[in-house]
Design brief:
Helices cover 42% and strands 12% of the residues. It has 139 residues and is α+β, with helices and mostly antiparallel strands. It has one domain: Arc Repressor Mutant, subunit A (Orthogonal Bundle). The strands form two sheets. Strands 4-3-5 form a three-stranded mixed beta sheet, with no helix packed on it. It has a two-stranded antiparallel sheet with strand order 1-2. Bound molecules: zinc ion (2 copies).
């Protein structure tokens, strides 16, 4: 009788485990590929729904609001991210940052629940590549 419920919670558990096992901030598509190795019949829609649910429960969080695709983070603690504008890789900024709080005037009547801090730039690989290209073009 409870089989469908059990299957759902198993799917959710696998999705969560796979997300928490990586710090690469995967997209739903990337996570889907990994989860399918364990649950071959899972659909992308199911992965999405479970990710949305886990976000709404504060178990995981979304990142990369500036990127082309939503990315997910198994770490729900507030932390800053740094994103590569070339390959869209997202990394955690490990050192805690002092984020200025908004006063009443600055928050304009909003109830502030958190802050998304995202640095953008070039990752070490892309930086190397762009430097190599620069050398070719400027000889
Ligand atoms: Zn890059
Ligand atoms: Zn993160």
């Amino acid at each position: 009788m409870n089989a469908p419920d059990f299957r759902l919670s198993k799917q959710r558990k696998v999705i969560l485990e796979k997300l928490q096992a990586t710090d690469s901030h995967p997209t739903a598509d990337e996570l889907y590929t990994v989860v399918r190795e364990i649950i071959p019949r899972i659909s992308l829609g199911t992965v999405y729904r479970n990710l949305e649910f886990l976000c709404s429960q504060g178990v995981i969080q979304k990142v990369g609001h500036g990127g082309p695709q939503m990315r997910f983070d198994g770490n729900p603690e507030p932390h800053a991210h740094i994103r590569c504008l070339s390959c869209n890789k997202v990394a955690d900024v490990k050192t805690p940052l002092a984020v200025p709080e908004l006063d009443e005037l600055q928050s304009m009547g909003y109830l502030v629940l958190g802050v998304n801090l995202e640095y953008v730039g070039l990752c070490p690989d892309c930086k190397k590549k762009s430097e190599a290209e620069t050398v070719v073009h400027t000889h």
